[in-house]
Task: inverse folding
């Protein structure tokens, strides 16, 4: 049965041995490509996808930390405002009680107390703001460095870090 098929192919100019050798060659090439090209490319793509997912997760964590830092800043500013209101209220009460006896002297002392309280509050606010700005800058730089660490040189990293600090300074 196979002899008649092979004879028919032979009469048509088809050499079955050549077809078989080509099929074997194709199979070998397909296996070589699968093991040495396709699998490593799939592995590389999976690794890249995993790194991107990690980067996105890290960025989300940094956003959460930034939001938390902003909430802390708002709470600190609110507390400073309440403290300043309390100090101002105490100063006013003291001024009105003492006003009966020494109006001029009391007015000068109250103004000094208010100026010191405002200066103290302003200094504390500036100190806390600088701490917060430094922390936010560090988080932005850490996030940027983490996301781009593999692709940038030292000069590019320094440029990005300085631009991020400048942008934060402008926004605040």
Result:
């Amino acid at each position: 049965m196979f002899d008649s098929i092979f004879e028919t192919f032979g009469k048509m100019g088809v050499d079955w041995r050549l077809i078989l050798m080509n099929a074997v060659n194709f199979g070998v090439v397909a296996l070589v490509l699968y093991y040495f090209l396709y699998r490593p490319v799939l592995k590389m793509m999976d690794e890249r996808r995993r790194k991107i997912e990690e980067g996105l997760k890290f960025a989300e964590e940094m956003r959460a930390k930034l939001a938390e830092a902003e909430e802390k800043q708002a709470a600190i500013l609110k507390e400073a405002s309440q403290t300043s209101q309390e100090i101002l209220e105490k100063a006013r009460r003291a001024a009105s009680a003492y006003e009966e006896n020494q109006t001029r002297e009391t007015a000068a002392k109250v103004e000094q107390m208010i100026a010191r309280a405002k200066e103290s509050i302003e200094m504390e606010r500036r100190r806390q703001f600088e701490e917060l700005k430094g922390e936010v800058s560090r988080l932005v730089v850490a996030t940027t460095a983490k996301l781009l660490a593999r692709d940038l040189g030292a000069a590019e990293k320094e440029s990005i870090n300085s631009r991020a600090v400048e942008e934060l300074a402008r926004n605040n």
Observations:
- The longest helix spans residues 16-99.
- The mean pLDDT is 83.
- The chain has one domain: 2-171.
- The CA atoms of residues 62 and 68 lie 10 Å apart.
